[in-house]
Amino acid sequence: MEYQENMALPHAAHSRPRDWPSAEDNVFLRRSSGNEKFMQSYARLPIRNFVAPEIVLGAGSLELAGQYACDLSQRRVLLVTDRGVREAGWADKVKRSLALRGLEVALFDQVTASPKSEEVILGARHYLDNDCDLIVAVGGGSPMDCAKAIGIVATNKVSILQFEGVEQITTPGPPIICIPTTAGSSADVSPFTIINDVARRRKVTILSKLLVPDFSLIDPLTTSTMSDAVTVSTGMDALCHALESYVSNASSPLTDLCALESARLISSSLPIVHNDPTDARARDMMMLCSLYAGLAFSNASLGLTHAMAHSLGGLYDCTHGEVNAVLLERVVRFNYPYARDKYDTLERVMFGDAGGKDSLFRRLRELREKLGIRRGLERFGLRREDIPYLGEVTLVDLSLATNPRPATQEDIEGLYEEAL
Ligand SMILES: [Fe+2]
Description:
The chain has helices at residues 23-31, 36-40, 65-69, 83-87, 90-100, 117-129, 141-156, 228-246, 253-275, 280-300, 304-315, 320-335, 340-351, 357-370, 387-395, 409-419, and strands spanning 54-57, 76-80, 104-108, 132-139, 165-166, 176-180, 192-197, 202-207, 215-218. The protein is of the alpha/beta class. The protein folds into two domains: 54-222, Rossmann fold; 226-419, CATH 1.20.1090.10. A hairpin with a 4-residue loop joins strand 7 and strand 8 (202-207). Helix 6 (117-129) crosses helix 7, helix 8 (228-246) packs antiparallel against helix 9 and helix 11 (304-315) crosses helix 15 (387-395). The two termini are 41 Å apart. Residues 1-19 and 25-34 have low confidence and may be disordered. The protein binds fe (ii) ion. Fe (ii) ion binds at residues 237, 241, 306, 320, 324. The site of fe (ii) ion (FE2) has 5 residues, from helix 8 and helix 12.
């Protein structure tokens, strides 16, 4: 692809040259000598952008919230969280760190799972009423997504739903610091926020570079209070981010590197944490995997699994990561003929060798079942008569644009049927 003046930087559905070396090839290149000829056979480096916040990673980094916040706030901080994270004590720890630096805090903890547009309005009001100038989010994907949306609404003073789609936000919100307490959503590094439009029973995806947080303080200690169910579902969400961004039409050598390493580490670390939640090293590793996967999907986007999970999440109250886990193996089997080499590479890094479509399908299913996710989508309330509607909604989801295989409504409905 030739660079042209005014050309939109590829961030969505652009195919990259098939013959660009994969991360696996890069390993081969490092080992081989006289590879000049080999390199010459490849296309030129494709133009891709890569966005990320300033990241502080490591045990205890949560304690740095005050230090980072005092550079950004002269007035008051809106601390966004949910009740569960408060009860676990993490919100209070952040509050203390902010207070130690002399910062005043207004607390907003009314965020629920799959944050609703009404919660965003409430939070924005709280931000304005308390004359805040900085947002600190502590929690999983829901508080962080809600915090990003609160910032945009507080500044623009219109409904967050008006910004649906790609780069629709023109006026940035206040600075944001994110402190994730789960290893999976990666909302702390991503340019996305997903908000539930309750009136239309749809999850709305908003993608904008203005949604990338200013700082991400990633502290693996915060994941020690996650239940096994949350550990597994957020971990499977991260795996899904890695796999979908790796085969995405908008992937690049940079995102490939992150995605592949994430998939490799999750396949070994997640079963360890599931069996022994006190294994601190495996918990650290899961936080790292989540970050890698987050950087990959923030810059290569996702695919059909997420498009279908978003549609289902708008209609039913269901766990995002668990829905992804159930759909993933089926979407991989559907996509396989369109990204064969990449799926084979994934299977090799995750399981040691590659046996093709059915082998990867079976191994992903075994991994999911080993982690205790054994039931289909019926358990979330999915009814056969809702499938045509879900098919329609999935077709317009942003994540579908970068799926390696084009999908028709019929294809999507078939995948929902299979996953019942
Ligand atoms: Fe996800």
